Amino acid sequence: MTTTTKRYGLVAVCLLLAGLVLMAAFGSSDSSARQAKPSADGLLAGASATPVNGYGSYGDTGALPAAGGSQPGGQLAVRTDEKLGAVMTDGQGFTLYRFDKDTAKPPASNCSGACATAWPPVIKDGNTTAGSGVDASKLGEIVRADGTHQLTVGGWPAYRYAQDTAPGDTKGQGVGGTWNALAPDGSKAKAGGGEAPASPAPAQPTAQPTATAMPQPQQPTGGAQLSMMNHPQLGQIMVDGNGRTLYHFGKDTAWPMKSNCEGQCLKTWPVAAPVDASKIKGIDPKLIGKMQRPDGTWQLTINCLPAYTYSGDQNPGDALGHGMANNLWTAINQAGKPAGGK
Fold it and tell me: Which intervals of the chain are annotated as region Disordered (predicted)?
């Protein structure tokens, strides 16, 4: 009887000690969480990396992608950010970044492990190409420790940011004071375009307006397919090779790039055809691109938005479509935005 009592007493003591150990462990975990601070890599100390639907869908909770979240760059492009100027993007429109702790001469990455989880390296493969506004001579690659080939721009290794959840996001800009969006030449993107290639000087129209006639668009030498003309009310607006005014539609979207003009709409607002980059006059080439429509045809894009002409414009230089449908249709100025302040 005495032996049994002692045995039960020993078991109770063991259970009590186990409980105290567990309480101490939870207390330590809570304390560590409270002390976690962001690092220069943009991570929280002790933060777990949990993937949510793969690249481009890391969720709204700030969860980071699992290691191996790196993806090919696709067709690289340049977009104009309102705050940062010219910014490099991947084929899906996600912002590319550079890390101050890396080096460009020689190109080398110092972001690995947890850093590469928060900042997935951009993989350069056979499908990584220079798209609109990208200088192919600035592109290169390095071989990472795991054998993958990482894209470089102007010698700087390129990354995405895990918490950029939508094309056009720039949440990684300035993180830790060491991460910056990439400009097209590999420099840090900054207001005013930073060190990005300078835009071509505006072309001057050769035809002068008269009191009795609408000014005609310039006729650039070499048969320009896209140029500027000076409209008496709207100022400088973009026109195609035949002098027809080009328009944007307010219901279209840039990210993702999509046209919402279909069917009967296209009879009134015909699609503008893509242009040869060598035949653009007086317009920043990085604003010009193209997109494939659902029917397989290609459409000119200006500042990442589809471009159209207007069937009601009868003469070169007409801009009768500007302001139609409560200003949903607008002529396009030299910056790729609505002309005339509308």
Answer: 164-228
What would the DSSP string read from start to end of 202-259? PPPPSSPP-SSSPPPPP--TTT-SEEEEEETTTEEEEEETTSPBPEEETT-EETTEE-
pLDDT band at 277 (very low <50, low <70, confident <90, very high): confident
Of the chain, the percentage scoring pLDDT greater than 70 comes to 70
Ramachandran area for residue 196 (φ above 0: left; ψ -120 to 50: alpha; else beta): beta
What is the number of helices (H) and of strands (E) in the chain? 4, 21
Distance CA 269, CA 322 (A): 12
pLDDT band of residue 31 (cuts 50, 70, 90) is: very low
Report d(CA 101, CA 31) in Å as an integer.
30
d(CA 23, CA 21) in angstroms, rounded, equals: 5
| pLDDT confidence band for 196 (50 / 70 / 90) | very low
Torsional sign, CA 202, 207, 208, 210: negative
> What do you get for the CA distance between the two ends of the chain, in Å?
96
SS3 label, residue 141: strand
